[in-house]
Every structure is written in C-alpha cells, then in structure tokens.
Design a protein that fits this description.
The complex is a heterotrimer of chains A (103), B (617) and C (175).
Chain A (H helix, E strand, L loop, with lengths): L6 H21 L3 H26 L3 H31 L13
Helix pairs in contact in A: 1-2, 2-3
Chain B lengths: L1 H21 L5 H28 L6 E8 L9 E7 H24 L6 H20 L3 H19 L6 H32 L4 H11 L5 H17 L8 H4 L5 H10 L4 H8 L1 H5 L2 H22 L5 H21 L3 H28 L12 H4 L1 H14 L7 H15 L4 H27 L12 H16 L4 H8 L13 H24 L1 H9 L1 H11 L4 H19 L7 H19 L5 H21 L1
Antiparallel strand pairs in B: 1-2
Chain C lengths: L1 H20 L3 H21 L3 H25 L4 H10 L2 H23 L13 H9 L3 H31 L7
The chains are: A mainly alpha (103), B mainly alpha (617), C mainly alpha (175).
C-alpha cells in the first residue's frame, strides 16, 4: 500500500502546489480568492513537511503538518472575518481598494 | 594726542550704532542730538589735533596708531591702523566741519520725515566710513572705507525708497561705481603681489626700489587705481550716475555728492602719488580725463533745468579740475581746490535746498524767480557760492585754488597749453551756468510764494559762505600742513598775461550770462528755437548722450544675454541632481502603493532573487 | 504502487490550477476540496494516515465549510461573476506566471541532483505521532492551542463589532 517515491518528486509536487497558490494570490483581486490561494500555499507547505517526515520515517513531519493546520485554521477564521469587514465597508471585496497604507 | 586719532572715525560710527539700534525708540530731538553730536565731537577732536600740529608738530609730522591686526595671511598682515599726516588732517578737517554743518542743517530740513532716525544713522555711518577711508594706513582698510561710502551712497540716494525712480538711481550709482571698485581691487592685488605689502607708507618706499619708472607693473597698478577713482569721483567714462543721484535728499547731495565721497578718488590718487609718479603715462591720462570731464560736464550744466542737476554736473566738472591738477603734478593745488570746492559746493547745495523746501519741492529754475526778496539769506549765500565756483578774482577762495591749477596746467611738460585752454574754457562755462541759475532763479520777476527758513538751516549757510570767501587765506597754513605729505608743485612763475586772462574769463562769463538771461532773455529763447541749437540743447541736456550710449553698448546686450540665459544653463547640473533625487524618490514611493498583492509580489520576487543568489552563486 | 502517487499528484495539480482560474467562487471551492482529497490520498500513500485524516477532517471538513458559509454571505451572483471575468485578463496573469515559472525553475534546479533516496516503506502510525506530540513537541502543542484561542477571540470580536456596526449604522469608513 505504501508507495515509495523518490524524495525529490515529492518535494517538487509540494513546490508546484505552492507556486500555483502564489500565482493565485498575485493574480486575483477578490479577497476570498486570495485567501483561498493562501490556503493552497499553506496546504502545500504542510505536504512538504510530511514528505520530508516520510523520507526519514520520523513523526516530526506529521507533527509539523498538524501545527501548520492549526495555524491555517486560526488564520482563515480571522481572515474571513476581515473579508466580511471589507465587504461591509465597500460593498465588494476588491482588495486593491484597501490601500490607505500607501507611502 | 595720538589717542585722539582713532576717536575721529569711531565717534560717528558709535553714533550710527546708537541710532541704528535705538533710533526707532528715541524722540526726534534725541536723534538729532546724537546724529549731530557724534560728528560734532569728531570735529572737536580734529580741531584739537590741528592745534597740536600747528603748535607742537610731531617729529615725523604724522601720528600713527594701529588698533589691532585685522588678519595675517600669506605674508600680508594689514591692521586696523590710522595714519594722520598733513594730507589726511586737511581731509578730516573738511569732512568733519562740513559734515557737522550739514548735519545741523538736516535737523530742520528732514524734520517730520518718517525715516528721521534712519537718515541720521546712515549719515553718521557715511561720515565714519569716509573718515576710515581717509585715515587708513593701509590700502585694505582704505578699501573698507571706500566700500562703506559706496554703501551709504546707495542707502541715502534711495532714502525715499517708496518711489521706484529713487531706487533705480541708487542701484545705478552702486553698479557704476562697482565697476570702478573692481578695477581698484585688481589694482590692490597687483600691488600686494608685486610689492608684497599694502601699507601705504611702505608702498611709497618699495615702489622706487622694486619697480622702474614707467614699467608695465607700475603703470598697470596705477591705471587700475585710476579706474577705481574714476568710478567713485564720477569722471569720464563712469560719470553717468551722479546726475541721477540727485534723487536723494539735498543734505545727502551736499555731503556725499559734492563735498566728500566724490573726492575720494582725488584723495586716493594724491595719497598714492609715489606710485603715480612712477607711471607718468597714467598721470597724463589722469590729466586728460580731468580736462575732458570738466568740459563735458560744464557744457551739460549749461542747459539743465533742475537746480540740483546743474550742481551735480558742476561737481563733476570741478572734480575734473582736481584730476587735471593731479595729472600735471600740482598735488597740493588739487587738495586745496578740494577744500574750497567742499565749502562752496556744500553751500550751493544747502541754499538750493532752502529754496526747494521753501517752494514746496520745486526743482525747476524756470519756475522760480524773484527769490532775492523772499529768501534773502539763501540768495546772498547762493550768490557767494556761485561767485566762488566761478572763481571771481581776488575776493573768493575759489579764485585762488583755480588759479593754482591753471598755472600748473600751463607749466605742464606734456600738452601744457592745451590743458590750460581746456581749463580756461571750463572756467568760462562754469561762470555762465552758475550765474544763469542766479539770474533765472533768484533775480527776475517774482513768480513764487516762499516760506520762512529756520535759523538752524541758515546758520550753516552763513558759516560756509564765510569759508567760501575766507578760505583763500588758507594757502599759508595749508602749505605748511601738506608740505611733507605731498610733493611740491611747479614753482616756476608764470607770465602775468596768462594769469590775467585766466582771472578775467569768469567775469566775461558772468557778463554773458547776464546778457542771455537778464538783459535779453527773448534773444536767448529765439536762439534756442533754431533747429541746430535745439538739437545741441537736447544733446547737452542728456549729458552728451552717455546714458543712451551705455544702454546700447552695455546694458542692452547684458539684459539680452540674461534673458537668453533665463533657464540658467550653469544651474543645469544642480537641477539635474535635484531631479535625479526626485526621480529616485518617486520610484521608491511607487513601491509603497498600499496594495496587498503588490507587496506579496515583492516578497515573492525577493524570495526568487535570494534563492537564486544562494543556489547559483 | 508508485503510479497511484503520480495519478493522485496529477489530479491534485490540475484541480489546484482550476481553483485559481475559476470565476465562480463556489466552483473554485469545490475544486479545492477535490485537490485536498487528492492530497489526502497522497499522504496515505506516503504512510502518514494521521496526516491524511487530519487533512480531510480539518482542512476539507472545517476550513472549506467556513469558506462556503462566507461565500454564501457575500452572495457571489452573476454580477460578481462578470466583474471577476473583467478582472481576470491575460495581462493580469503574465506577471505571476513568469514569477512562478522562475521559482519553479529554481526548485527544479535544486532538486536536480537526485540523491535517489526514497520515502520510507513503513507507516508512521498515529501512536508515534501522538507520542511525539506529547513528548518533544509539547510546547508547540500549547502554543498552537493558544493561537487557536486567539483566533477564536479575534474572530468573535470582529464579528461582534460588525454586528454592532450594522445595527447602529455608524460603521461608515471605519477600518
């Protein structure tokens, strides 16, 4: 049942997922989609950890994955609350409008 | 006794400081007291020193006092030092006595003016600067005084600064004299580098040792000093500023532009006579400039309508006489003429001021008339001044001084006869134009209503009138004072015919003026209407067209160049630098757009670059 | 059984690509769920059953449901879809595409020197993970629990303010 794949392939897979998520963050303007792409990136990072753990048959990889998951959960709840605020403020979720920090 | 020497310039300067700092808060009476008092005390010090000189002359016939060393750099160590010998004693006597009288006159003349304290402050500063100029023992300190009087001239010409014309006149005066000042400074550089010192007495010694007579170095230095003198003394070609300088108050014209500042150039040349005697060609040029100026100015004064402009051109002409005297080697005669001229020209200006004020600021002589009856004191003093100016034989001081000059001109080795003819022609013109004013403004039908004049204004007039007559007795004392300071003039006696002609010419001039302006005024008017004469009239009125000439030659092209360079191409590198900084700033600001995705891209880009650096390098 | 890994990986990648290119939010979410399920399968195949379970339960089960609720509140209707299409132009994709290509290239370059190491054939059981969590990583567990508490409080606070703001009509430009 267990597949034995070259370690590099696993990492490349996680990397591809990560970069797809990054592209999503950069290209989308809708706040919800940006958060979603952020989730993709977090998921990919966690996958990378697990693959590394599987390489050395150590539980540390899965432990880190759990932590990443915890962080993602906390972040997504706060992030979505902020998205709701954004919507409340300007009736759409165009993130480019939120630039009062411009220099 | 020597201690008094440094008090002489310091007292008026102290007066200036007091009035500059506190003048706004003092009452008019106090301001006047401070202003006149400082010059008065200075005059007292001078008179004490004069008494000392006469009764107990010091061994070297001079007092010297250095207050402190100004700076010491590159082999030069000029100090704030004063040197009082016969020449400077004569100068400070005139400056303080005439200055005090004019200050006294101004107390009532400038009464009620909103800048009363400012006026006296500037006048005190001027007297202080002029005294520094005359008492300086080194050329650098002299230049300090030189610049000081130039500054005060600017400030005082433009005293009523709310009128744009006055400020324009002030700027014109300053700029034209600046040209001369630049020549003077370059001359100072030459002297310092060539002779290694700027101490005047030292220069006198070293010039003989280090530079051969007629050498290029001596001639160049002398010519440059002459350039400075020409600017300050309003001689050809830098004379255009003086007529316009009459825009200032009358006491200013009397003090600065008649008695003292315009003679600074004469003093400079007289003081630097060792240098000039080593450059005989330059001396010839001095004489030529003097004689040309006296003719040009005399002719221009003939047709002026403004009483002050007549006097301005007259000053130009008389300073030309002084230059002529210097040029032919009659050093003492030049200084003597300066003394008499200071008296009668100040007198003329002050009485003109009385007239102007009494007639509510009327300057045009053709609108005056019959003032003999309404302003008797002003009339008689003006008459005395005009007589002295015309060198009326024997009774006036002006006669004696002009006599000396003409005699020296006749005896001059180079171009003697021509210079004498120029001098005599100038004397003829002088008497015509001065008595023209007398006949038109004072005699003749009464066309005006005049007010009374206060005593504090008439007293100086009377005193100066007495001096204008009595100063003829001075040569005795005078010669004694300047004996050691200046080289003796030509001592050969001149034929009696020459002297007689020179003495009678002024009388002829007065007769001509009487004819034209009193006897047959209709004839003069008809003459003036002929087209050729009218053109000549216009030409002379504009001062021989020098203003137009300079406008076309110098001012116009300069303004055009300035307009072309409006973008200021020399400023380009600096503006480019600023622009680059601005560009960099704008680029950096663009990175702070506030957009979340922009920042994420920044992070991603940075990450890519760092990984690349780690992996590939 | 290595081919199963590659098939699941392909599915995951394709599904993720669809996520970031969809216009409709719900569609994107569903594609992401598919991607997550494929990732969970991969985790199982790599001998990490605990991680696979967590992925499905927490990620696909809780976080995605949260997303669905929020998207429902924001009501992504046809108007929003049109707006999304406007925003999603080719010019928008060029920059990110190039950047990701560059990064991918770097990753491939780094991974090129294949060590030939393989992932372990044995499972890492939940028991091992639990022992590790309660052993060396105890501090991390505490920290994550505190983080979750913070997230909880923050989310509650924001929602409370939101509710109060709507009720009293004073929100305006408050950010």
């Amino acid at each position: 049942m267990i597949s034995q794949v070259p370690f590099e392939h696993g990492m490349i897979f996680a990397g591809v997922l990560f970069f797809l998520g990054l592209a999503g963050v950069l290209a989308r303007r809708d706040a919800v989609f940006i958060l979603l792409s952020l989730e993709i990136m977090l998921n990919a990072a966690g996958l990378a950890f697990v693959v590394a753990g599987a390489r050395f048959a150590a539980p540390d990889g899965q432990v880190m994955f759990l932590f990443v998951l915890g962080v993602a959960a906390a972040e997504v709840s706060l992030g979505l609350a902020l998205v709701l605020w954004l919507y409340h403020w300007q009736r759409n979720v165009d993130i480019d409008n939120a630039r009062s920090l411009r220099g | 006794m020597p201690d008094l020497v440094w008090l002489i310039p310091v007292l008026p300067l102290a007066g200036f400081l007091t009035l500059a700092l506190l003048g706004g808060r003092l009452k008019a009476g106090v301001v006047a007291a401070v202003g006149c008092g400082s010059v008065g005390l200075s005059m007292a010090a001078v008179l004490m020193l004069l008494a000392g000189f006469i009764h107990a002359p010091p061994p070297t016939f001079s007092y010297s006092r250095t207050l402190w060393t100004w700076f010491a750099a590159g082999g030069l160590a000029p100090g704030i030092g004063f040197y009082l010998d016969g020449l400077s004693l004569v100068m400070v006597m005139v400056i303080t006595v005439v200055g005090f009288l004019i200050h006294l006159y101004s107390v009532r003349f400038m009464e009620g003016d909103e800048g009363y304290a400012r006026f006296f402050a500037y006048m005190n500063l001027f007297v202080g600067a002029m005294l520094i100029l005359v008492l300086a023992d080194n050329l650098l300190l002299l230049y300090l005084g030189w610049e000081g009087v130039g500054l005060c001239s600017y400030l005082l010409i433009g005293f009523w600064y709310r009128e744009a014309a006055n400020t324009r006149a002030a700027i014109k005066a300053f700029v034209v004299t600046r040209i001369g000042d630049t020549a003077l400074v370059i001359g100072l550089f030459l002297l310092a580098s060539g002779l290694g010192t700027l101490q005047i007495q030292e220069i006198a010694l070293r010039v003989g040792r280090l530079w051969a007579p007629g050498s290029l170095a001596a001639s160049a230095a002398a010519a440059l000093l002459l350039g400075g003198a020409v600017g300050k003394s309003a001689q050809l070609p830098l004379q255009t500023w003086l007529p316009d300088a009459m825009a200032g108050p009358t006491p200013v014209s009397a003090l600065i532009h008649a008695a003292t500042m315009v003679t600074a150039g004469v003093y400079l040349i007289a003081r630097m006579h060792p240098l000039f005697m080593h450059a005989p060609d330059v001396l010839l040029v001095v004489a030529l400039i003097g004689s040309l100026t006296l003719l040009v100015a005399g002719a221009s004064a003939l047709v002026q309508k403004d009483i002050k402009r007549v006097l301005a051109y007259s000053t130009m002409s008389q300073v030309g006489y002084m230059f002529l005297a210097l040029g032919v080697g009659a050093w003492s005669a030049a200084i003597f003429h300066f003394v008499t001229h200071a008296f009668f020209k100040a007198l003329l200006f002050l009485s003109a001021g009385v007239v102007i004020q009494a007639l509510d600021n009327e300057h045009d002589i053709f609108r005056m008339g019959g003032l003999k009856k309404t302003l008797p004191i002003a009339f008689w003093t003006f008459l005395i001044g005009a007589a002295s100016l015309s060198a009326l034989p024997f009774v006036t001081a002006g006669f004696y001084s002009k006599e000396l000059i003409l005699r020296a001109a006749w005896l001059s080795a180079r171009g003697g006869a021509w210079l004498w003819i120029a001098g005599v022609a100038g004397a003829f013109l002088t008497s015509i134009y001065s008595f023209r004013v007398v006949f038109v403004a004072f005699l003749g039908p009464d066309r005006t209503i005049a007010r009374k004049t206060p005593v504090s204004m008439t007293l100086p007039l009377v005193v100066l009138a007495l001096f204008s007559i009595g100063a003829g007795l001075l040569p005795a004392i005078f010669g004694g004072l300047t004996r050691l300071a200046l080289p003796a003039g030509p001592a050969v006696p001149v034929g009696i015919e020459v002297q007689a002609i020179a003495a009678l010419i002024p009388v002829l001039g007065i007769a001509a003026a009487a004819l034209l302006y009193r006897g047959r005024p209709a004839y003069a008017a008809a003459l003036a209407r002929r087209p050729l004469v009218a053109a000549l009239h216009g030409f002379l009125l504009s001062g021989w067209g020098f203003d137009r000439l300079y406008q076309a030659l110098v001012v116009g092209p300069f303004l055009r160049l300035a307009r072309i360079n409006r973008g200021d191409f020399i400023d380009l590198p600096f503006r480019a630098l600023a622009w680059t900084c601005g560009l960099g700033s704008k680029m950096l600001v663009a990175t702070q757009s506030g957009k979340v995705r922009w920042y994420v891209m920044g992070i991603a880009l940075g990450g890519a670059v760092f990984i690349a650096m780690v992996v590939f390098l | 059984m290595t081919v199963a890994f590659y098939i699941a990986a392909a599915v995951s990648i394709v599904a993720t690509f669809m996520v970031i290119t969809r216009v409709n939010a719900i569609h994107a979410l569903l594609y992401f769920v598919v991607s997550l399920l494929a990732a969970a399968l991969i985790l199982l195949l790599l001998g990490a059953p605990f991680a696979a379970a967590m992925e499905v339960i927490i990620y696909a089960g809780a976080i995605m449901v949260l997303f669905v609720f929020v998207v429902m509140i924001l009501s992504a209707g046809p108007r929003e879809a049109l707006q999304e299409r406007q925003w999603l132009r080719v010019s928008t994709w060029i920059g990110p595409a190039i950047l990701t290509a560059v990064l991918l290239g770097e990753l491939l370059y780094v991974m090129a020197g294949a060590t030939g190491a393989l992932t372990t054939p044995a499972q890492v059981t939940p028991a091992q993970v639990g022992a590790s969590l309660l052993g060396p990583y105890l501090l991390g567990v505490e920290l994550v629990s505190m983080l979750l508490l913070v997230g909880l409080i923050g989310a509650f606070h924001l929602a409370y303010r939101l509710g109060k703001g709507e009720a009293s009509e004073e929100a305006g430009g408050k950010r």
